[in-house]
Structure formats: C-alpha cells, structure tokens
Amino acid sequence: GIENLLSGLPKMFDRDVIPALESFFSWMEQMAETIDPEMGAAFSGMTDTLFSHLSNGVLQLCGTLLGILGGVVSGIPSAFMKIMITLIATIFITIDFEKVKSFLTGFIPVRNKDMFCEFKEFFGKIVPRCLLSYGLIFLITFGELFLGFSFLRIENSFGAALLVAVLDILPVLGTGAVLIPWAIIALLQGNTAFGVIMAVLYLLITIVRNVIEPRLVGRQMKLHPALTFAAMLVGLRIFGVIGLFGLPLCFAFLGRLHEKGIINIPALNKE
Questions:
Q1: How does pLDDT run across 93-124, given as a tens digit for each residue?
Q2: What is the residue range of 14's domain?
Q3: Is the same domain home to 134 and 218?
Q4: Can you spell out the DSSP letters for 217-252?
C-alpha cells in the first residue's frame, strides 16, 4: 500500500535516482574541467554536498509523510464512527421529532414552557417584520434624498442618495451628519438657495421618519407609536444601537406575555 511505497522510497531513490544524477553531474564536471580545472574541482565538491542533502531530505520527507499517514489512518475509524453515529441519530430524531420534542419539553416547567413558546413565536415573526419595516423606511428615505438631490442637480444623485440613506440607518450619524454641514457650507459660500433647500430636505426627512418609524415598527409589534418612539430613544440612550431596536422588542414581548396571561403587568390592566 501507500505505507510500503513510502518506506521503500529512500531505497528506490538511492538505487535509481542517485546513479542517474551522478552520471549527469559527472558529465557536467568533465565539461567544467575542460573549461577550467578549478571550476571542475569546485563543481565536484558541490555535487557531493548536493547528493548528501538530497538523500537526507528524502529520508526526512518519507518519515514525515509516514507519520502523517499513520495519524490519518489511525483517526479514520474514530471519524467514521462519529459520522455514522451523527447520521443515525439525525435519522431517528427526524423520524420521531415530535416525540423527542415532547420528551425534552417535558422537563421544562409549564410556566417556562409557555414563555419559551411565546418567545419563539414572537421573535420568529416579529423580528423579520421589523427588518422589513426598517427596509421600507430606508427606501422612503432614499427616495426623498434622490428626488431632492436630483432637483438640486447634484452630480451622481443616485450614489449620493444611497450613501446618505445608509448613514441614516445609523442613529448616531443620520442624514444630519451630511445634510446639515452641506447646507451650512453652501450658505457660507453665498449659495443661499442651495443651502435653504438642503436644510428643508433635512427637516422633511426627519419629520417623515419620526412619523412613519413609530407607526410602522409599532404596528408590527402591537405597540403604541408613542411608546415605541420613547422605547427607541431610551434604548439608544442607555444601550446604544442595540437598545434602539432591542428595547422596543423587549417591551412588545412583555406586552405579549401579559396579553397571554403568562405574566401580569399592573400598568397594562384595563379598568
């Protein structure tokens, strides 16, 4: 097999390869002596050193390959067993998934089980809807910017609008990080009309976003727009960007648990 081939490789190298190389370098040495005797002597010494290094290199290479081969061969049974066990377990779990699920969930207390199921259902449906809502907000903002930039005849209006709309996703920056300095610079340069229109565009985008964001996101999470907006501001203030999205989701999840009767929030109880 491969192991026998590797173990016999040094002998084959000494028996077949070395003689052929010796004949070739002997011819080269004779040619060098014809040109210059000193060159021939130097070439002869170099040839001896080269053959010595080649032999040692082949021995080391074969030893290394044998070690690697041994490790691979010894690890094959273990890897094969792991793969087979994983496949068999996957097949049985797939066949009896509901039984396995019932068995595992049987260890969870009823109260926690209900909360876990609600958590899975809530975040499995609401989070994608929220992402869709923010995607719609992004498209609206991009449309406003593109129309405004086109009206102002800004070069590459599409690319500029896309860049500013991406910045608008980041609450720390927003469109104001670009539009406000742009408007101020235009006013200082005497381009009053451009600066005023840019400032109006920023105000329009800000107003539209503050109106539609709580409504779109709040509708998906069944939160009042005012509560959604307040949760966004508080979350951003306390937890940063994660809080901007996370706190409204937490409020909505708690409201859902209260609605299902899993927990009780006195402030949400109707008189």
A1: 677 667 766 766 666 666 666 777 777 777 77
A2: 2-95
A3: yes
A4: HHHHHT--HHHHHHHHHHHHHHHTHHHHHHHHHHHH
